[in-house]
Amino acid sequence: MFCVKLSCEVWLVILGALVAVLLRACTTLHPYSGAGSPPMYGDYEAQRHWMEITTNLRPLEWYKNTTDNDLMYWGLDYPPLTAYHMYLTGKIGSFLNENWTKLHESRGFEGESHKIFMRYTVLAADIVMYIPALIFYFHAMGGQSPDPKTRPLSPSLATILGLLYPGIILIDHGHFQYNCISLGLLVLATSCLLLDMNLTAAIFFTSALNYKQMELYHALPFFMYMLSSCVPKPGQSLTSSLIKLAQIAITVMAVFAILWAPFNRDFFAVLRRLFPLDRGVFEDKVSNFWCVFNIFYKLKLKFGNYEMMRICLFATVSMVFPSSVDLFLRPSRKKFVLSLINSSLAFFLFSYQVHEKSILLVGVPVVLYFPQKPFVCFWFLCISVFSMLPLLYKDGLIIATIALMLFYVISFRVSIEHFYRSSLNASDGLAEYYRSLLHVLLDIEYKQATQIDILKLTYKQIVKNKETLKNLAFHVVLVTSLIGCLVLSFALLVFEPPERYPDLFPLLISAYSALHFFGFFLYFNVKQLQIPQEFDAIKNVKIKSS
């Protein structure tokens, strides 16, 4: 009988993956974007309509406004790889039931069997792409930490907590989208890059960019890191570096050429669909700088879309500049994920045409950084879900949100307690200070000590347990922050806003979340800049003797 012995860590990951799939399946039972809301419905209908268009029209008509393709009704506005994916799923759907994708006649179709089919297409994409990509990343990276003084969370626990992140579950399997594909490709590209497989990384990231143009949020770190790897090191020839650069460039261009081949005559028409400037600087109440600033200074009344686009471009480039230049001038594998966080967060906070759901583009890199700073990353991921609460509330996903967040918080608490149990010691830190303080107080009672002795003892313990007190202060701030989230959530769900300010609670949630994101942006930038340059590549170079 064939038997394979697996370690406890492997069984833990398998169990975590099964639980993650179960939670995704349970979330599909809840409402989706635009359910029963004609005439435009929501993102569910958008994906279905794209299947209708791609399976019934020629590729040349997919991005054009025609009598058969009304671009005002959920016109295709994602790159070609999304269109090919919609074509494939649409063909499968039309094989099962041709009414699901009949041209014109299938608009707003919401049959029960079709809902199951649509939900399962997302679940299949998640199981095939995102879940394996995340498992592979944490397995490949192991327990590496950029700070030798810190003890990173184990890969198995980091994998489980990454798979349980409520943000991507709620948006893909509740609201209804296919973010798991582009984000899965991003994770695979990151894994390959950190394993020095630059060409494979280029293929995966270019594919991600051709699935969703929002992957531009992550483009600068990939560009800067790959470009820095092509700069000649001591002992390396300029020719070998140029060949390496040419290989990467040819790989990227080849992927673009293959995916865009059917649209070479309509290249600019497709680009106009991918980057529609007439939609404005932000949609709904997104938790970024422009939405908060708009409360006090009405941007849409002061600037046109093209003016605002240029302002956003300047602001975004300025904010992402320090992180990108640092990655190029002082390249290190240990700072690459941080650079992904900083770049995507800069784009989210300052770029043009940002959606609430775009915070997932920051959330997934934070998931990858989870082993290094679990408490900070947990805090960020909670705020990221909270920032989408008005959208989730509109979609009827509040019960799913509460359930998934509770499960995530409990899972995090259990994982952290399990992993760090051995390092906790009640005789250290504050407990020791309180015992010493009690002795001094007793000495004062018997006239053997003075108030000055208490001050000396307190100062001594603060210096000795500086890290303990710093951690205590951090946890107080974290808990206070999450309590604020609960209060605002309660207000949104229970109270009616004043008639004069119907968007009061969504705006408060956006401003509160944006304030946190500014703080996280500063924190992650500082963490990246503190990591020194990596000299492993230079150490391995053989210098020719003269």
Summarize the structure.
With 546 residues, this protein is mainly alpha-helical. The chain has 24 helices and no strands.
| Global structural class | mainly alpha
| Alpha-carbon Rg, integer | 26 Å
Q: For the report, how would you describe the main beta sheet?
A: none
Helix content: 55-70%
Number of helices: 24
- Unreliable stretches covering 5 or more consecutive residues: 422-430
Total strands: the figure is 0
Which geometry do the CA atoms define?
globular
Distance between the termini: 63 Å
The proportion of strand residues reads under 5%
Report the order of strands and helices.
Answer: HHHHHHHHHHHHHHHHHHHHHHHH
Mean pLDDT reading: 88
Description:
This protein is mostly helical. The protein has a domain at 191-272. It is 67% helix and 0% strand. It contains 24 helices and no strands. It has helices at 8-27, 43-56, 80-96, 112-141, 155-163, 166-176, 179-194, 198-209, 219-229, 238-260, 267-274, 289-296, 299-302, 305-329, 333-350, 360-368, 374-387, 389-394, 398-420, 430-445, 451-464, 466-494, 504-530, 536-539. It is globular and about 85 Å long. The N and C termini lie far apart (63 Å). Residues 422-430 have low confidence and may be disordered.
